[in-house]
Amino acid sequence: EIPKLMFSGSCAVFDSMFMFNLLDDFPDPGWKNPIALQVRHIKLDSKVMSIAAAANSWDKKQSSFSRTCQPDAKLLYSKKIMIYLNTKDEQKSRRQLLFHEDEIESRIVERHCAMWNPHIGLFGAWDTSDIKTIQINEKSAVCMSEKLGTYAIISVLVEDPVEKEEHTWVIYAKNIGYITSILCLLIFIASIQLFSYLWEQFNILHMNLSMMIVLGHVSMLVSQLENIQHDRHYCTAIGCLIQVGYVGTALFIVAECHAVFKGVTHGLVSGRARVYIPFVWGINFITLGYNILNNLKEMGTDPVCLLGWENVVKWHLFIPILCCCGVSFLLILIVMCNINYSLIRKSSLIEELSTTTYGLMVLILLFCLTWTFGVLAYIRTREIEIPDFQPAFQVMNSWSGVYTFLFLGLCSTRYRTVIQGAVQDRTQDIMNRAK
Asked: Are 299 and 313 in contact (CB under 8 A)?
């Protein structure tokens, strides 16, 4: 649908000529404007319509045609060109994959009206800058433009999930790390359970933190099994366990930082574990439930079962962890600045609180660094090219249980007392100090 008035001035009385071409295909339809269409894969989803117009007149005296006039851009701006196109592929466009195998799966993310721009690159490319999509669905599209040219419907395709190849040393390093971390943390958990001397607030939180890391590590090991990766439902379940494990880890780190914060600023060093534990578990499951509610149909599509292939699903894992990192770092920084001005007066408690604080400080730095690498490794960006951070994340994350056991366990005065079998000597020493 083109406007009647396209020529102005003396050209308005000339004879108008229109040329229409309708092509079934177009050479190399994958070329696109990287600014207007920031996507990886597109396809031509309609016939290609080309419109050209010109005006001239026959001069009888000169026995020749007059000069050729081109359409007036101002008239085309006020009276737009309307283009009606039918799609080739009648799949409904959607932004998510379907969850069950018996449902119809669409590989089309969305559709756009596009116009061929010959000035992009060496050979031209499809561009959406000079054309507007008025209405579009799986059968047809209505487009509007103020320029004559070549028009078509472009479909943005779903990016196929691709698992990155890992170096052999990364595979060995991470698997050994996961197994070693799990064994260290199981020893840590068992020792806290067996010795009543460790049944105090901070070690109870250490135990719950260790349980979360074990859950995350076991889930990461299981996610490497081919049977799990090839089954959508199993992969979804493992991805949910990964989220519960590592988001729970981050939340318990926040709880421990708040516990030492209350100890330094208010002198409270016991009895608060019963508050922290249900609070952390509740927030953890609320976070998981929110992710499932919004992104269930996207889950289970990641090759390594890290929730889902789309970035929006992974952000539901990374955002809570990064927020916890920020809160933990702020709390522990306040504690470090005020550790020498603690309201606690007992030297034994100050010693135990200090070792816990220093251990948490190192743990938080390593944990924040690890999950920063995780974001850089798994969040895909089209705008910038970044190095592959997946080996760094995998190795650091797999050994996180070892440094947790080292800095929260072996570096703790109370825990070393139990390991050395010197509980009675320690108790007697504290009583002597009190006298």
From this structure: yes
